[in-house]
Amino acid sequence: MDAIEKKVRASFAKQGLMSTLDAEMTSVGTGTVEIRCSFDAKWTQQNGFVHAGVITSILDSACGYAALSMAPAESEVLSVEFKVNLLAPAVGEAFVARAVVKRAGKTLTICSADAYALNGGREKLIATMLATMMNVAEKAS
Amino acid sequence: MDAIEKKVRASFAKQGLMSTLDAEMTSVGTGTVEIRCSFDAKWTQQNGFVHAGVITSILDSACGYAALSMAPAESEVLSVEFKVNLLAPAVGEAFVARAVVKRAGKTLTICSADAYALNGGREKLIATMLATMMNVAEKAS
Amino acid sequence: MDAIEKKVRASFAKQGLMSTLDAEMTSVGTGTVEIRCSFDAKWTQQNGFVHAGVITSILDSACGYAALSMAPAESEVLSVEFKVNLLAPAVGEAFVARAVVKRAGKTLTICSADAYALNGGREKLIATMLATMMNVAEKAS
Amino acid sequence: MDAIEKKVRASFAKQGLMSTLDAEMTSVGTGTVEIRCSFDAKWTQQNGFVHAGVITSILDSACGYAALSMAPAESEVLSVEFKVNLLAPAVGEAFVARAVVKRAGKTLTICSADAYALNGGREKLIATMLATMMNVAEKAS
């Protein structure tokens, strides 16, 4: 595990929400991140599908960490904004978000990400995000 | 409580996520909804702020139910898409999302919503959403 | 006309597109700008409505100049991203975009804007924008 | 030229704006469309770059026609909403927008599109769009 992956995984481990969702970072590359979580009735909307806000959560974290993997050494990353299209009901055993950096800038990094529902080994595209992330100086701790 | 508020509150009560977040629907009007939840370390990102996905969750539910309050009688509402700008860190004792319908159509309803952090009785604007909701025929159950 | 309005209007006057559209900056305040243009068949889509891209143009310029009106003295403003909902066909004698700053930051400024069609003295809401603008150091010239 | 391409090109030919921009539909496939236009000082913003609203115009038309290429026979397509990230200044001899359908539904179709600046045979990514299009019954004429 190289220094960048280490930095990304250390930050991910500090996200209370990802731990509450039992989410796992299943892949980290330069400008790409994959995050996965399982279905639980705790995360549903009124029809029993997973709530758009939960799918957004793994998409947003995937975009943020994809951006962080290309950020300057002393930087961390905050979400400026994102747009999500919900393409199909979030029905499945598990859900995976895959983010990729479209453009890494000095201050802003633009990422896109797709979310898939997993059912019996098959993947179905359920949502897509286009997001703007911002590099900010890491706080001393 | 009139028929519309009853329908809105009944659907809200079925959202597993809102119950998991201990979220409360603090107001329902024609084309307006307010949802509130409290801070918990379970919902944080790496800096201890509440995760953008959680703020998005209450903004999205508020928009959806604002749309539902103006939807045809036999309809329910699904999120088509939303865009969220994060304006300030989600730091506070509690968070409130206030949604308002900008245009209610036969098929699509457009809503905007603002989220505020509450600290010692003061409100601070932390996020804003612009969302597209869709009326769909209610499933028999 | 104060220094800020002068700076905003001088930049607006340099936008070739606004001049091509015969657009007029009808109001400038601190954090608010209004831009107006007239109908012309040159700007239409396939049904004879004004094209979404033209309505977006006046919304984007209105947001950019609303942001500029609150930017540091030596800064200019560039558009990072925007999202537009088209709420009704752009049918009318003229169109007006009104932008307001939601949050002015050191680097990023978030604006919302509404566009209206004007017909016989009546206004109809036809589109809404939520945009992110960025302050950048003004180039010497 | 098959029936779908014919329908797409006939609608494109009716867009006053595309003709004003001297835009050309350089490719049409099932779920994909490419539109190109040339630089002209008429379309600029204050720095002499092409205005975001013009780039949005070719991105939006490309998304709309990509959606139309997969729409039911008697339908036309209207833009519901789009989000655009501006990734680099629109500086170049010409600009091309390439759209692809991400999900074609009965009512709504979701498209993504990228815009490139062309300079001496080289392409540079300058903007990206994520858009929602709606199928509507074609008006008799």
Could you characterize what this model shows?
The structure is a homotetramer of 141-residue chains. Chain A is 23% helix and 45% strand. Chain A has 141 residues and is of the alpha+beta class. Chain A has a single domain (3-137), classed as Thiol Ester Dehydrase, Chain A. A six-stranded antiparallel beta sheet of chain A has the order 1-2-4-5-6-3, covered by helices on one side. Chains in contact: A-B, A-C, A-D, B-C, B-D, C-D. Chain C binds chain D through residues 11-12, 14-17, 20, 41-48, 51-54, 56-58, 60-61, 76, 78-86, 139, and chain D through 11-12, 14-17, 20, 41-48, 51-54, 56-58, 60-61, 76, 78-86, 139.
Overall 3D shape of chain A: globular
Q: Name the biggest interface.
A: A-B, 35 and 35 residues
Give the DSSP E fraction of chain A (strand runs of 2 or more residues): over 45%
CATH class of chain A: Alpha Beta
Helical coverage of chain A, percent range: 10-25%
Output the number of helix runs of chain A.
Answer: 3
The CATH architecture designation of chain A is Roll
Compute the CA-based radius of gyration of chain A. Answer: 15 Å
Which series of helices and strands of chain A comes N to C? Answer: HHEEHEEEE
Instruction: List unreliable stretches of 5+ residues of chain A.
Output: none
How many distinct domains of chain A?
1
Placed side by side, the strands forming the largest sheet of chain A appear as 1-2-4-5-6-3
Explain the layout of strands and helices.
The structure is a homotetramer of 141-residue chains.
Chain A: H1 3-13, H2 16-20, E1 24-29, E2 32-38, H3 52-68, E3 75-86, E4 94-104, E5 108-119, E6 122-137
Antiparallel strand pairs in A: 1-2, 2-4, 3-6, 4-5, 5-6
